[in-house]
């Protein structure tokens, strides 16, 4: 007994050779008709670009009149996009039937080799200059409707689903990671060939709401690098969608925060030694961070000295445009805020005094204070704080 075919799977085309309609045709014409039936079956079960719409037609020339129209053999076709501003492309295809999964597959001629249909159609869709141009009807091939099959997106009803449901389906389909570390290769589905950025290439229509959703629901984590680069590259519209950012600075957290995240009043008071280019990057980073309004700021306190957690957290919260909640973690586990002394009720005057008393001597002082502050006393610095009581008493 022959094995049963799974429901919903495309069926191989079996045309009886005794059919009167087929019997009256030549051998090549019979092969052509069978091949067109295979193409039709392929077109209703294909998994190519979800935006590509065109007609795929068998092209008959003097060279192809005696060609073999068989599965696995190169067949000359012409692909005519729906857009009237696009001209047809002539290409060789090979159609296969995979018995193991009862599905059709196709490869397209590309240069000196062959390319999968999905890659070929995606490349054509994202390289529109190959298509643009005025059609020349005089030189267009004469095609018959019976020689063509329609290439159209599958599951068009997907775009009519509510946006939230579309997003849930896409998230389940790609197994999107909840945490992403920009600057470090991040892939979906655990495969090295499927980067997260491919989500943005699904289609322009899906892209209009998948990007905001992705930025709103993903936690982007950073060490002491890539934050400025990331905020610059994603652009203002995506910066406004960010809701979750995680930061981990380790045992040099105070030095890093003093250089890049402290308010300008504190930075000027310390005289933190940065060259002109570094000052430019500091200003740029702070300008970008002011555009970001976070629902959650995640601070990894692993290796961070406990006495600096308060000033580090306050500096970061004031650097962002808004922070609704601060979450502390260590080794992946959440730490209660009261265990690390947050919220911290100390003023900026008290913070800078503690930093000066604990850090103005030692190797770390060279990265936080200028030479004048290192050699000076607290009374000298205190006199400067009294010139701006509104800020330092806050």
Provide the succession of SSEs. HHEEEEEHEHEHEHEHHHEHEEHHHHH
Q: What number of domains? A: 2
Largest sheet: 6 strands, antiparallel
Distinct helical segment count: 15
Output mean pLDDT. Answer: 80
Global structural class: alpha/beta
Cα separation of the termini = 85 Å
- Summarize the amount of helix as a percent range: 25-40%
Region (Disordered): 1-21
Biased composition (Polar residues): 1-18
Topology of this structure?
Elements: H1 20-23, H2 27-43, E1 54-58, E2 75-81, E3 89-98, E4 103-110, E5 113-116, H3 117-126, E6 148-151, H4 163-174, E7 179-180, H5 204-217, E8 219-222, H6 227-239, E9 244-248, H7 253-260, H8 264-270, H9 276-289, E10 293-300, H10 309-319, E11 322-330, E12 333-335, H11 348-359, H12 365-368, H13 371-375, H14 378-385, H15 389-392
Parallel strand pairs: 7-8, 8-9, 9-10, 10-11
Antiparallel strand pairs: 1-2, 1-6, 2-3, 3-4, 4-5, 11-12
3D architecture notes:
The strands form two sheets. Strands 5-4-3-2-1-6 form a six-stranded antiparallel sheet. It has a six-stranded mixed sheet with strand order 7-8-9-10-11-12. Helix 6 packs parallel to helix 9 and helix 7 runs parallel beside helix 10. It has 394 residues and is of the alpha/beta class. About 8% of the residues have low confidence. The protein contains 15 helices and twelve strands.
């Amino acid at each position: 007994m022959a094995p049963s075919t799974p429901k919903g799977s495309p069926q191989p085309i079996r045309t009886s050779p005794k059919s009167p309609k087929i019997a009256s045709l030549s051998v090549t014409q019979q092969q052509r008709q069978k091949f067109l039936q295979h193409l039709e079956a392929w077109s209703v079960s294909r998994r190519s670009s979800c935006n590509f719409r065109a007609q795929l037609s068998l092209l008959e020339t003097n060279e192809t009149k005696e060609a073999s129209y068989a599965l696995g053999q190169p067949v000359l076709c012409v692909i005519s996009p729906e857009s009237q501003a696009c001209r047809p492309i002539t290409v060789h295809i090979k159609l296969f039937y995979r018995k193991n999964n009862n599905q059709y597959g196709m490869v397209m001629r590309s240069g000196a080799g062959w390319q999968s249909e999905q890659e070929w159609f995606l490349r054509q869709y994202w390289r529109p200059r190959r298509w643009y141009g005025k059609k020349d009807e005089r030189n267009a091939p004469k095609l018959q409707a019976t020689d063509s099959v329609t290439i159209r997106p599958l599951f068009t009803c997907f775009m009519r689903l509510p946006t939230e449901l579309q997003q849930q389906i896409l998230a389940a389909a790609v197994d999107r990671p909840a945490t992403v570390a920009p600057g470090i290769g991040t892939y979906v589905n655990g495969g090295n060939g499927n980067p997260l950025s491919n989500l943005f290439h699904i289609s322009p229509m899906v892209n209009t709401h998948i990007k905001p959703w992705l930025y709103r629901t993903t936690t982007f984590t950073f060490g002491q690098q890539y934050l400025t680069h990331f905020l610059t590259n994603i652009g203002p519209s995506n910066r406004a969608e960010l809701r979750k950012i995680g930061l981990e600075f380790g045992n040099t957290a105070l030095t890093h925060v003093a250089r890049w995240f402290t308010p300008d009043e504190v930075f000027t008071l310390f005289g933190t030694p940065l060259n002109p280019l570094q000052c430019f990057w500091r200003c740029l980073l702070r300008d970008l961070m002011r555009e970001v309004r976070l629902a959650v700021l995640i601070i990894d306190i692993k290796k961070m000295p406990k006495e600096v957690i308060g000033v580090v957290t306050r500096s970061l919260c004031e650097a962002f445009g808004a922070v609704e909640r601060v979450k502390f973690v260590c080794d992946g586990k959440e730490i209660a805020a009261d265990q690390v002394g947050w919220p911290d009720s100390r003023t900026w005057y008290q913070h800078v005094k503690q930093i000066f008393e604990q850090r103005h001597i030692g190797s770390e002082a060279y990265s936080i204070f200028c030479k004048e502050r290192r050699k000076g006393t607290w009374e000298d610095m205190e006199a400067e704080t009294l010139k701006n009581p509104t800020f330092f008493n806050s």
